[in-house]
Specification:
This protein has seven helices and 15 strands. The chain has 246 residues and is α/β, with parallel strands linked by helices. The strands form four sheets. The protein has a seven-stranded mixed β-sheet with strand order 9-8-7-10-11-15-12, sandwiched between helices. A four-stranded antiparallel β-sheet has the order 2-1-6-5, covered by helices on one side. The protein has a two-stranded antiparallel ribbon with strand order 3-4. The structure holds S-adenosylmethionine.
Length: 246
């Protein structure tokens, strides 16, 4: 595969990655090394030009470097694990609210058949659509600018649900109703007291409840001095997983 005009390209050095779009006036300059349109167009993915490795961006690169963020997002380290715990596959119909900047939805839509997504604030509804359209993502997402509590959904409709709102408790009963028996539920909460409050509400209507935190530590990639990087994202949120019981 080769790079063409209008493609997104990931330019990598030993230290950093840069996500850019290839336009006629494309020019990337770092420490006196410059690459221009003619240096990247028709190059094969993975080629090295002037010591930059040219790659097709992954979904992680797109979310972390390409999405405009105006809300806290679910980081790929959490969203891919959530997708795994929700047992997403192309036969499954999933519920998600709130959508925020659209980061977690972008991951779920790759793995689920359909995602029915609700975002209460128009600003974030527009932002998530813009992020997805920019990278041609989320064509199987049915997004509505609506409070999930106002959505008309038949009972036992979804195979899985992910809830990322400040307080999931007021919507828990409705989430339970729209999930199929035995279906999977997940939520991310930033503080332990929120998790405790949610657990109390879930006790009698969900089973197989788990609370998980994912610590993600990057290493300095030096074979002679292999050691962790000095700083890390120490906390994103606690993940709560469960299955609907009847
Ligand atoms: C933290 S953001 C979600 C971030 C998103 N998961 C991502 O990865 O980009 C929380 C969002 O929930 C929305 N929200 C809160 N209550 C809601 C509700 N009842 N229905 C739909 N959206 C809601 C907020 O407007 C906000 O945009």
């Amino acid at each position: 595969m080769t790079f063409k005009e209008d493609d997104y390209i990931l330019i990598t050095t030993d230290e950093r990655k840069y996500l850019k779009r290839i336009t006629k006036d494309f020019s990337f300059n770092l420490k006196d090394r410059v690459i221009k349109y003619e240096d990247v167009v028709n190059r094969r993915h993975g080629e090295v030009v002037k010591s930059f490795c040219l790659l097709k961006p992954s979904i992680e690169d797109i979310i972390l470097l390409g999405f405009q963020r105006k809300t806290q997002i679910i980081y790929p380290k959490d969203s891919f694990y959530i997708a795994y715990k929700l047992d997403l596959s192309k036969e499954k119909r999933m519920l998600e609210f709130g959508v925020g900047s659209g980061a977690s939805t972008a991951v779920f839509s790759l793995l689920a058949g359909e995602v029915w997504a609700y975002e209460i604030r128009e600003e974030f509804f527009n932002l998530s659509k813009k992020n997805w359209e920019k990278f041609g993502l989320c064509q199987n997402v049915k997004l509505e600018n609506l409070d999930f509590l106002q959505a008309q959904i038949e009972e036992e409709f979804f195979d899985a649900a992910f809830v990322d709102v400040k307080d999931p408790i007021p919507s828990l009963e409705k989430v339970w109703k729209v999930l199929k028996p035995g279906a999977s539920f997940a939520s991310l909460l930033p503080t332990m007291n929120q998790v405790s409050a949610l657990l109390r509400e879930m006790e009698h209507i969900f089973c197989s409840i788990e609370v998980v935190e994912i610590l993600h530590r990057h290493y300095k990639v030096n074979p002679e001095r292999l050691r962790p990087q000095d700083t890390m994202v120490a906390h994103t949120g606690y993940l709560v997983f469960a299955r609907k019981r009847i």
